Structure formats: structure tokens, C-alpha cells
Amino acid sequence: MPPRRAPSVVLLVVLLLLAASACSGSADDGERPGDTVRFASYDFSENEILAAVYAESARQAGLPVSLHPGAGTREVVEPALEQGVVDVVVDYLGTAVRFVDPSGAAGTSTPEQLHATLSALLAPRGVTVLAAAAAEDQNGFAVSRAFATEHGVSRLSELEPLAPGLAFGGPPECPERPLCLPGLREVYGLRFGSVVNMPSRAATVEALVAGSIQVGLLETTDARLGGGGAPVVLLADDRALQPHENVVPLVRTAALERWGDRLADALDAVSARLTTADLSGLNRAVEVEGLTPRAAAARWWDGS
Hints:
The chain is of the alpha/beta class and about 300 residues long. It folds into 2 domains: about 10-135 and about 245-304, Periplasmic binding protein-like II (D-Maltodextrin-Binding Protein, domain 2), CATH 3.40.190.10; about 140-235, 3-Layer(aba) Sandwich (D-Maltodextrin-Binding Protein, domain 2), CATH 3.40.190. The protein contains 12 helices and 10 strands. It has helices at about 10-25, 45-60, 75-80, 95-100, 110-120, 145-150, 180-190, 200-210, 255-260, 260-275, 275-285, 295-304; strands spanning about 35-40, 65-70, 90, 125-130, 140-145, 165-170, 195, 215-220, 230-235, 245-250. Strands 2-1-3-10-4 form a 5-stranded mixed β-sheet, sandwiched between helices. The chain has a 5-stranded mixed β-sheet with strand order 7-6-8-5-9. Helix 2 links the parallel strand 1 (about 35-40) and strand 2 (about 65-70). Helix 2 (about 45-60) crosses helix 10, helix 2 (about 45-60) packs across helix 12 and helix 9 crosses helix 10 (about 260-275). The longest helix has 16 residues, at about 10-25. It is globular, with a radius of gyration of 19 Å. Residues about 1-10 and about 20-30 have low confidence and may be disordered. One of its GO terms (molecular function) is transmembrane transporter activity.
């Protein structure tokens, strides 16, 4: 399958945004973008946190770093990585494989198989897949605790008879993503009565609690989940729609060649230590405690 390419106008916008951020001082340490290791994140909170964690390790290794949070969706950022607009993107194994080659994910059921497949797909495109972390975050589908109690549901498969009368809430790209609404239809037979675009995961939780939607997409490490008092609960993925989603850094091979082992070693150091519990804690630090992603990353490093 030929490499995916973003339209040239989209990449031009990304380039202009990166240049503008550097001119406005958001490129760390006063470095020009061409003189830094450019970390970009997808446009949701957890990925911004992960980019900050991995960038902090590179910074502590003495590398010049620029951090560009919320650069866009995967459809924009991954092609920008391939084309050298950015140098490092922190991704998730299963989703990355399906994005790069949506027709070729069969037989990649373990993290090791996913990693090998992703490496083989991206190497010809000038991208190196470094070691994956134990930390994992999958798409999850949540309902309010009150809804789960009223309808006696704890598994996704139990929603099938209810779905036509329910409203689903998720990000705007959810209707096109195979691990979101298309997967729910194919694997679980879920056809919701309506679909509502949600601007954020926090808004999704608020809508679930208010009852304006009944089912919503939340990552499994979302800070608002867990504990008996949580207002929303995840439904079990009892037919295994979601693949393994270990956190994994994708790096421009040219950047590894330029910065040597210091860059690879710094990023591998994060992956060797980052656990799913750590990821949940980082999300909580930002989403509940109000820390910035960079502050949460620095605290994680100080305490690890």
C-alpha cells in the first residue's frame, strides 16, 4: 500500500504553525526548529502529556527540544512525521498499524507482532519505531453509573438491543475510525439512534452524567474513571474489538542519525519505565489537579 500523504495545503499549515510557535518562543530553550528535536502531539490531552514526558527525557539528556502540542489529528501529524515536518510522535501500537496499513492488520495480535509490523511498514518511509512501553491505553466506551445500574449492563455486547434508542458521543473523527463507530457496528452490531460530536473527553463525561448522550468514547486511562465513586464506568470490550495499544515513540530516522544514541537512549529510558498506572496518574495530574503537561512530566521524572 502506498504511503498516506496529507494534502500539501495541510502540511503547509502545519509548517507555518510550527514556525510561528518557534517565533513566539514556544520552542524550548530559544532554539530554532531546525536546531531542535521537534516533538509533536495529537490533539488530545493524554498525547500532549506523553510528548511532554518523552521530551523531558531528551531535555535531561542535554538535547535541544521543541515541543508542539495539539498539532492535529493522526491524519495530519503522522504524514508530517514522514515528510520531516516533525521528528518525534508518541503513538499507540494497534492504532498506528491500522492507520498506516488498514488492510493488513490480520495476524498482529500481540504487542511484539504489532511492533514488528509497524517497524516494517514505516522503515521505508524514513521513520524508526523505538521500543514500546508497558503502558497501554485503548479506546474505551463508557456509560454513566446510573445508566449501567438501571439497564444492568457491564459489557458492550449488552448494548445491542438498546442502541437504536441511544445517543453516542465521541470525537468528530469517530465515524471514520475503524476502532470507533465502524468497529462497534461490525463487531457488536451497535447502530446508535444518533451520534453527537464531542469537543473533549471532559465534555463527554459531562454529557454522560447529564444524560444528553448515553454512550461515549473515553480512553481506558482517563482520569475520570476508576473507583466506586466515579460517575461513569467503562463497558467491557467482551469481543476484543480493541488491539493492544502500547505507547511507542515514532522517530524520524534522519533525526536519530543526527542526534546519535543520545536521542534513542533518552526515549527508550521512558519506555522502559512507563506503566499504565503511571499514565493514569499523569492524566489525573493534568485533568484533575490542573498541572500543565510539562509540569506533570517533570513531577513524574522527579518521583520516578
